[in-house]
Amino acid sequence: MLENQVKRIYLGIGSNLGNKRENIEKAKFQLIQNNIRILKSSSYYETLSWPNPRNPKFLNIVLEVSTILSPTKLLKKCKQIEAHLGRKKNTKNAPRECDIDILDYKNKKSKKLIYLPHPRLHKRNFVLFPLFEINKAWKHPILKDNLKTLILSLSNRDIRSIKQI
User: Fold this and answer.
1) pLDDT tens across 13-63, in order?
2) The dihedral of CA 129, 131, 135, 137: what is its sign?
3) What domains are there in the chain, each with its CATH number?
4) Long-range contacts of 143-150 (CB under 8 A, 24+ apart)
5) Which of 14, 17, 64, 71 lies at a CB distance of 3.0 to 4.6 Å from 39, suitable for a disulfide?
6) Minimal CA–CA distance to 121: which of 14, 43, 28, 37?
7) pTM as predicted
8) Residue 152, Cβ neighbours under 10 Å: how many?
9) Higher local confidence (pLDDT), 91 or 125
């Protein structure tokens, strides 16, 4: 029973172009339209754009979802939703209307067609803080660290520069 409670799917959604909050809400609606149930949603968090802080600030949330889609089919669906909301193929880390990342898929570990868990989630304040808000007990599937440990390993700048909205 407890084992089932731990195997959850987490998505990160971010936007730093256009009406950011509306873009994220549209992404959530599109997920629901594609039989992806939203179980929990974090608050909105505002962060500086990375790696170029001169780009528009990001608005981010983390969702806990359930779906029958496999990780690769879920990733494909997320990419379709991003494109539908106006995301274009651009340089890495360029500003975008919508970015949807699979952060953790039922604690699976994979480096084949899709990296699981997300390879940089443990270094990102805009993932760790909202994830902590919705599941304080989450542990990194590979590092085995809890969220408090991961958050405290961030730089002071990363800890201070995130703002819950």
Assistant:
1) 999 999 999 999 999 999 999 999 999 999 999 999 877 889 999 999 999
2) negative
3) 2-164 (3.30.70.560)
4) 150/122
5) 64
6) 14
7) 0.93
8) 10
9) 125
